[in-house]
Amino acid sequence: MEAVPQGKKMVAPTVSQINAEYVTQLSNRYWAPHVKKKMTFDSKVIEDVYQKEILRTKFAIRKIMLLEFSQYLENYLWPNYSSAVSSNAYLMSICCMINEKFRENVPAWETFTQKPEHFPYFFKCILNASLAKESNLTLREQTVLLVFLDHCFNSLEVDLIREQVQRLISLPMWICLVSSRLEHELKKTPKLRKFWNMIKKKEEKMDEKNKEQADQEKQFLSCLISKFLHVLKCIPPAGSASMDVVHYCERFVELMIDLEALLPTRRWFSTVLDDSHLVTHCYLSNLVEKEKEGRLFSQLLDMLKFYTGFEINDQTGNALTENEMTTIHYDRITSLQRAAFAHFPELHDFALSNVAAVDTRESLVKHFGSLSPNTLHKVASYLCLLPTLPEGENTCYEKEFLLEMLVSRHERRTSQIQQLNEMPLYPTEKIIWDENIVPTEYYSGEGCLALPKLNLQFLTLHDYLLRNFNLFRLESTYEIRQDVEDVISRLKPWQGEYGGVVFGGWARMAQPIVTFTIVEVAKPNIGDNWPARVRADVSINLNVRYQIKGEWEALRKHDVCFLVTVRPVLPYGTKFDRKQRFVEQSGLMFVRGCEIQGMLDEKGRVIEEGPEPKPKLKGDSRTYRVWLDPNQYQQDMSFSIQNGAEDVYETFNIIMRRKPKENNFKAVLETIRNLMNTECVVPDWLHDIILGYGDPGSAHYSKMPNQIATLDFNDTFLSIDHLKASFPGCTIKSTVESSTLQKPPFRITFSVQCCKGKKRKGGSDGEEAEESQTLTIEPHVIPNRGPYPYNQPKRNTIQFTPTQIEAIRAGMQPGLTMVVGPPGTGKTDVAVQIISNLYHNFPEQRTLIVTHSNQALNQLFEKIMALDIDERHLLRLGHGEEELETEKDFSRYGRVNYVLARRLELLREVGRLQESLGVPGDVSYTCETAGHFYLYQVMSRWEEYLSKVKAKSGKSGDVTTVSEHFPFHKCFANAPQPIFKGQSYEEDMEIAEGCFRHINKIFTQLEEFRAFELLRSGLDRSKYLLVKEAKIIAMTCTHAALKRHDLVELGFKYDNILMEEAAQILEIETFIPLLLQNPEDGFSRLKRWIMIGDHHQLPPVIKNMAFQKYSNMEQSLFTRFVRLGVPTVDLDAQGRARASLCNLYNWRYKKLGNLPHVQNLPEFCAANAGLVYDFQLINVEDFNGIGESEPNPYFYQNLAEAEYAVALFMYMRLLGYPAERISILTTYNGQKHLIRDAINQRCGSNPLIGRPSKVTTVDRFQGQQNDYIILSLVRTKAVGHLRDVRRLVVAMSRARLGLYIFARASLFRNCFELTPAFNQLTARPLQLHIVPSEYLPTDRRNGHIPTHLMRVIKNMPEMANFVYNMYMHIIQRMHQYRQPVLLPPAPKSIKEPDPAPVIENVEEVEESVPESKDEETPVEEHRQMPEHPGRDSDSEGNDDEEEEEKQEEKEKEEKEEGGEKDKEEKDNGKEEKEKEEKEKES
Fold it and tell me: Which of 153, 275, 300 is nearest to 222 (CA)?
């Protein structure tokens, strides 16, 4: 299948084009879902469609998109498939549809579950077609089949697929091996011979038909390899190769890589691949020699070679150590030497040499190069690599092949970890602009790429980390490329008159370099061949605005910058053409990374960072000391010396900085590399699950050997009835009979024996079968903590549902707990309760909380503070703690200050106690003196008191003595009086003990704080706090990745991890927090891993579409575990939205119901005032012939929808809806800017209307909610990225009370994936129904017909005019007693050519507002929105809106400055002026 040329955007077909298509006409007759009377099935239609629409158009992606979108597979191809109608066209049509679904990233295999009995025959036909000759199927068609097979091998979690694929790859496929090789392999692993003999016996019993099919299946891949080698050899040495052949070869190698990268397939296939010598054949092929056509093929081949030699035992799946790899290498060489010594006298020198002398490529070529082809063949056959050469016959293999096969097999290999350590971490220009490795944003999903894939399974932890390392590095490279292109295009480098470089513009993030000097190249460390460090000085002239100068001076230690060399060839004043290749236009030569050490002062010394203010330097010249990458420096110097090339480090003329939030890639890469260099100790119970093998439920608490029988649920249950309701189907036994004593808190004892090794019902369903399980509950009373009101413990007030209780129970038990939390189901409340229960049940254990965003961490912290957790045990790491809505500071230094302040407070209490007891001296001076005072003065008095008041055996105690002899009356004089009630001895004694507990706690805390007296520096104190004092430590996943090295160095320890938003965290950023501590005695101390997330909502943000689609980098570890079948607890009751709104997305979940308050509370029962429906899809047609527009790539806008959305917001405000309860969302950044613009012009500064709570994208609003959501779906030509159901779920689940969607109904209703939601939306009228005279609040109940007059709004201009008139009507009524309010611009600008419909029931006041040309400009400006940098798939991360707006301001300033400096572009002046005016307004 031919790839779309990179750099060209694939245009999606429009609705009008879709309607005019032949496919659409056929669809309307045969399979369209909305057509009721369909024609009967006709196989000729499939032949016709395939020949005309697919084959004739050379598999045009546009045609295939149309067919797939029309539900061709779901409604026509598969429902009618059978062996009787199967044909090549039928097979190819199904394969094309499946491949298209994978390209679009939508579920592909669900269709086959309808008629699974036909799939085996279909798959058999695919195998036969894949081996067919070109006369039957063209190579292009066979490439489609290869892609289909690759998708099958990568979908082993689907039972239907796995059953078929396993037949192709199993031990019987070794029948294809050379007989001597087969014997060698069976001898190597004795148990395999037993299996081989069993297979032989089984085959002997088969009938002819089954035996023939079994033979076809086990020889399929071997035959496919033979076919590929035949195709590869057809490529001529000279001239260009056919692209169909090249694409076939690329896809075939991709399939081979995927088979080698999965252990279940690799176990048997790797030997067959090695026996075919495919890699050697490929390296010697003509295609590799072709620089242009063979580039991607060569890169894929390198990946295949890497995986064929991967450091793993194929049979056991164990990773091979460095020593084991060396042993294998030595065994191969020595077996070759033995063969040479015994049978080949001409190789005696080789046979008698030591291994190190003969295992290099040069040495092997020298020894074997002189041998004849026949001799080489004999050597290979002795090693079981080739069949034995019959006597007197010549070999059929070429000498070049035989020599390469022997050399490549026996040459010394660089270990993978050594290659990694020698790799530079910064990308260079060679990688940054290589389209096969870092594709452009226009990647269509068709072509094949030389990228690793993240699928379900990995070979070893090293493989897991390496794939993630490479992808993370390349994703960062893509962002760096965007930044470099942006700053260089702003700097406008041109060739000067005398050949130098002249910069015609300026950039905020880059400066021309004045001088660059290498100042230090340190000697290599022992065993390394690269310098220990390389340092350089970079001087720049900061003759810029004060604010920007401050940004450059604020560069901190370890900030990453890039050094760039440009040698432009374009003469002064030439415009940059975005359509041309960037590198050639800009004359970009080199890009190298560096890390800031610091700025130099006037004496040339590095200004160290610290609490002291930085010295102010005079003038504009600034010099930075930077660290260069030693590996890169070594490579550059070696290349320069060997090839006589110029020194890269003498050419730099630009230094570029990046935004700090986007610039942490080097630290993360170093963390991953360090992990790969250390012995990764993952807990045994997690190891196989992380790699994707074994029983996916093995880490569930019911199968853990160290399950805990009795758990204290603390304040989880509100009452005994709540407890009973939480365990339906269980027998509850209480240790106390009296119902009055059955009060929380409860300890529950579970019958552990029945859980062990028990199979879970429903596969991945998280709730265990609890039939006939007996729970023993023991109510217990929390001991009295003291007489003060603040001594009373804080209690949970949430009535958890049975499913939430199961999640809490699972989280308290050891093992892996996965909680799927749909929108509004109380994920955070469950997380907080788990943390609280762990804190109370296991006070000696430490819990680490990890989230994706600072916002989620802060929400979690605010809820934790409301529970019974001592705040001295809480710690928050990272830079988000300042956003906590509390005066308390939970950062490291904030906690140190808290401890110091608390210490003084407690010592004052000790002083008061000392005074009350009349003890002389200053015992409250330090924690140490306070400890002595407690031991000798307090304890003695308490023991004396106990001896006096304790009841004699057999007698009840005297009530009066408890109060009479109490020694601390004076101390507790400030507590609520009387302390003792004098009613019963037991009650008063408990109060007395509570008072002593209060005193005891004071001294216990002081003993903990004693270390802070000994540690003097803030740094030491903060380290102690982190390592010893804190019990609950919270950080973001990014902070964990950045600071892993520091945390491990400190000796950080933890027992439990809880991850919130787990489905939004990158795979590698989820894995790193598991390894933030050193193992103890070779074992990890991690006991629990709780992940809470929702894989049905949006995944991690990946900016590059190729990494997102092709490499599956957006798959979180949480999602992968769900796909693997790891048991989950699915929360099943939401309390956020009206039940009717919940129906729009609850179909996506197993069983999502509603909490009772959603039906009972008044706010959910009341209708939305002024609006007939609580949710509605409003169809928006083209305005002035324009639907969606795209000023920049992926920067989609829709003026009609933007204006309609803003008009509805204004209408709601005029009815009395508070602005903070309304948010406007959209699916594209372009539309977000357009709506913000419209609000600024229409109502932003109007005090009567104002601005909504937020105007943002759906992606950024994930995790937030509001009462009323106005949603714009923007697209009118193609569904776009809303086809990802996860985005739809987020969009539909943000509203609590009202959801109003503006979209092109005809487009979205036909999308198969969105059908469940849009069927409900389109069941209601598609025109906005309003009740203008019904104001907030209303007495009307939701779902009831309004008593006021209804009005139907037909289109956007009518709504705009209506709102304007309504506003004027309100102003006139207010005029008599209120100051004049600012008038909104009249909506003349959005009038259609036809006259607007007559307005009913509203005063006509348009005449009073004169028409003016000025008021028409806003729409003109809308159509010419200022260009906005970057792509529009909401891939800018999760920064706050405020930060985003600040960044927009910066960009505006930059544009304005650029405009001032750039006097040359006068022809574009008018457009620039309009942009500037527009930006100033917004």
Answer: 275
pLDDT tens for each residue of 224-262: 999 999 999 999 988 888 999 999 999 999 999 999 999
Q: Residue 155 and residue 1307: Cα distance in Å, rounded?
A: 30
Other beta carbons less than 10 A from residue 688's beta carbon: 16
The string of DSSP letters for 91-138 reads HHHHHHHHHHHHHHTS--SGGGGSSGGGHHHHHHHHHHHHT--TTTS-
Sheet holding 1056-1059, edge to edge: 874-876, 1032-1036, 847-851, 1056-1059, 1088-1093, 815-820, 1129-1130
- Amino acid identity, residue 197? N
pLDDT at 781 over 90: no
Give the length of the chain: 1482
Residue 1427 — pLDDT band, cuts 50, 70, 90? very low
- Outline where 865-926 has alpha helix (H): 892-917
Name the residue with higher pLDDT: 123 or 1461.
Answer: 123
Farthest CA pair distance, the chain: 118
Name the β-bridge partners of 1300: 1176, 1270
Strands (E), 1037-1134: 1056-1059, 1088-1093, 1129-1130, 1133-1134
pLDDT at 1444: 55
Cα–Cα distance for residue pair 168/188, rounded to 1 Å:
23
Q: Rounded to whole angstroms, how far apart are CA atoms 812 and 707?
A: 10
pLDDT at 1169 > cutoff 70: yes
Q: Specify burial of residue 47 (Cβ count, 10 A radius: 0-12, 13-18, 19+).
A: middle
Distance (Å, rounded) from C-alpha 940 to C-alpha 377?
95
* Sequence-distant contacts of 76-80: CB under 8 A, at least 24 apart: 76/30, 76/31, 76/41, 76/45, 76/46, 77/46, 78/111, 78/112, 78/114, 78/115, 79/114, 79/115, 80/41, 80/43
Model confidence at 1467, pLDDT cuts 50, 70, 90, reads very low
At 1466, the amino acid letter reads K
How many other β-carbons are positioned within 10 Å of the β-carbon of residue 905? 11
Nearest residue to 50 (alpha-carbon basis) of 26, 74, 31? 26
Type of residue numbered 1176? Q
Which of 122-131, 233-242, 439-448 tops mean pLDDT? 122-131
Average pLDDT of the chain, as a whole number: 86
pTM metric for this prediction: 0.87
Q: Which residues of 1303-1340 are buried (b: 16+ CB within 10 A; e: fewer)?
A: bbbebbbbbbbbbebbebbbeeeeebbbbbebeeebeb
Segment 1288-1304, tens digit of pLDDT: 999 999 999 999 999 99
CA distance 1363 to 406: 82
- Per DSSP, the residues of 328-350 read HHHHHHHHHHHHHHHH-GGGHHH
Place of tokens 């005297």: 958
pLDDT at 1386: 55
Q: What is the mean pLDDT of residues 105-125?
A: 92
| Cβ contact 1072:671 at 8 Å | yes
Strands 847-851 and 774-779: what pairing? unpaired
Partners of 385 in beta bridges: none
Q: Which secondary structure element, helix H or strand E, spans residue 156, and what is its range?
A: none
d(CA 345, CA 341): 7
- Are 1188 and 1275 spatial neighbours (Cβ–Cβ below 8 Å)? yes
Backbone angles phi, psi at 524, to 5 degrees: -65, 155
The residue written with tokens 């057509």 in the block is: 35
Question: In 1258-1336, at which residue ranges do the beta strands (DSSP E only) sit?
Answer: 1266-1272, 1295-1303, 1328-1330
**Average confidence (pLDDT) over 774-799:** 88
Q: In the chain, what percentage of residues exceed pLDDT 70? A: 89
587: left (phi over 0), alpha (psi -120 to 50) or beta: left
Query: Which residues, at least 6 apart from 302, have a Cβ–Cβ distance to it below 8 Å?
Result: 450
Over residues 993-1050, the pLDDT tens digits come to 999 999 999 999 999 999 988 888 888 888 888 888 899 999 999 889 888 988 999 8
